[in-house]
Amino acid sequence: MKERLNRRRNVWISLTAALLSGLLVYGVYALQLRQIELEKTRLVVVPKQFVKPGTLVTADMVKLAPIVGSAYRTQMLTRLQDAVGQQTLVPLGENEPLLGWKLDRLRLMPGADEATFSIPKEYVLSMPGSIRAGDFVRVYVSGKEASSRLLDSEVVVASVRSSANMEVDDPKNPSLYAKADGDQEKLYASRRESNGVIDQLSLILTEREWLAIDEACRGKQLKLVIALGSATAASPG
């Protein structure tokens, strides 16, 4: 009887040892796989040189560069198209992995050669009540003698405010959120459910563009006509 118990105990000891040995081998194997994974390189988007905040990123400014897998973070961009066409919110270092939060595709910040200019009310003849921050607009001049387009390129609206100095928008569903999400129906609804009438308009302009506006309207013979541009997302329907 004692011999049988000893034999059974030896069997259990052998099985336990085999199991522990198998777990140890598997653990070592898993660690080796993890190490190999960490040592693999990943391609991420990096700037070719230092980039100032407020710069519109173009294809010639960025490239793909390898980094060690252990250094990769989910916020890093891995496709060039995710960076091109967006605006930098902070300075970008040369060859520094580009993080998504450092870019904004709505372009509400002035670029390197731009500034935000508040347009005097007396300069404006008309503008759509649906204009919102982030929209692209065309700027025309109109007078008794003639009318013409004043600025060659569409410019970005920095803000539209009411007489109470509040941003004109739908407080519950701001149009910027809808535009960022690409939700056209929500964007259209937000433009309709505004909290006021536009009293103050600010545009992102170069110095040359602002001086052209000021020179045209200073004499009070011409006034601005602001129109929504083609780059602004169209409303559904």
The radius of gyration over CA amounts to 30 Å
The tally of strands reads 11
Structural class determined from secondary elements: alpha+beta
Number of helices: 4
Largest sheet: 7 strands, mixed
Report the average pLDDT across residues.
82
Percent of residues in helices comes to 25-40%
Uncertain runs are: 233-237
Taken in chain order, the helices and strands follow as: HEEEEEEEEEHHEHE
Percent of residues in beta strands: 15-25%
Shape: elongated
Instruction: Give the end-to-end Cα distance, rounded to a whole number of Å.
Output: 91 Å
- Write down the oligomeric state: single chain
Question: Short summary of the structure?
Answer:
Helices cover 27% and strands 24% of the residues. The strands form three sheets. Strands 5, 6, 7, 8, 9, 10 and 11 form a seven-stranded mixed β-sheet that branches. Strands 1-2 form a two-stranded antiparallel sheet. Strands 3-4 form a two-stranded antiparallel ribbon. Helix 2 runs antiparallel to helix 3.
